Amino acid sequence: MKYLFPYIFERYLAKQIYAAFGFILFALVALFLFFDILSELGSVKGQYTLPLALLHVLLKAPSRISEIIPIAGLIGSIYIFAMLASQSEFTILRIAGLDVRRGLTTLAKISLPLVVLTLIMSEWLGPYTENLSEQIRMKALGSSYSSQFKTGVWVKDRLRDEDGSGPIRPGVRYVNVGKIEQDNEIKNIRMYEFDDAYRLLSIRSAVSGRFDHSGTWILDDVTETRFRETKQSDPLNPVYSAQTFVHPIISLNSEVTPQILSVLLVSPEKMSIFSLGRFISHLRDNKQDAQRHSIAFWKKVIYPFTIFVMLALALPFAYLKVRAGSVGIKVFGGIMLGMSFQLFNSLFSNVGLLGSWPALLTALTPPLLYFILAIVGLRWVSRA
Hints:
Elements: H1 8-40, H2 50-58, H3 61-86, H4 89-95, H5 100-141, E1 153-158, E2 172-180, E3 185-194, E4 200-211, E5 216-230, E6 239-253, H6 258-264, H7 273-285, H8 291-302, H9 306-314, H10 316-319, H11 327-355, H12 359-383
Antiparallel strand pairs: 1-2, 2-3, 3-4, 4-5, 5-6
């Protein structure tokens, strides 16, 4: 700790803020999990018992923690700074040479371990436990991942030869998957293949399919109908012939992997940075709109660093005089400030999506504006 905080006052502030942060984080996570448990009680039936429901909710705790860390940092630091101001300790620190610049530098150091914690929770531990939680729930309820969709999952793929192999050729394949099981198995599959002029080439339907280690889909009980245009004298009234084939099993090369299918069932806000990056590349390769996922990607990249913005917003409260309000009022103000940031961040994402703004600009603007607000507030209270 001495390497990161070489000065005594830095270690003192870090210990105080970390202690308050830990207590508030625990309280907020416990509160949110309590409400999650209450909402989950209605689903308890059959094999999905109360202990499994509790386990399902507890496994979502890492994702909750990553969402709450910035707000907990804001409230905890406001509480500490308000207490230091009320006991004149911060005045002593200012006399000892703690100016605004050194204060921000200290807060940047304090935020570094919290940034690492947020990345661990949101990128590694959170997605893993969230997926495990959903598997436990689905297995107990006897349902599949895509049962919430009436028409299953639709995904765009690249077209290959008629046997499903060979190089990529002009055209497009639309894949509809009815159900997705936990073990990379899919059911009720339909495929519609079109050429580059969007003329229907074939329709495939399969009862089930599985993804093998070689990177191909093995489809069982496949019925395939191929359409061919019969040459006619009237080009405005073409006639097509259809041939139907039945295959007990076929192998199909596809760029649609189980990871991409699982991503389709998760909102972009709950995906990891690496999953978002892979899926954005898939969307762009297939010339699909990736704006929503791009905004979510940059928000995921920037979000851990908003912890420093939250701590910077708390610093002006240390400069306020005791008569400016009690500690409780300042903490309440911090809660309102944190809620306003979350609401503005979500609202700005939707506005950027509707306006087709650059994804990086959309994700960066809310924390940048609040950081400017923190600097303006610091300049104002430090001169008072």
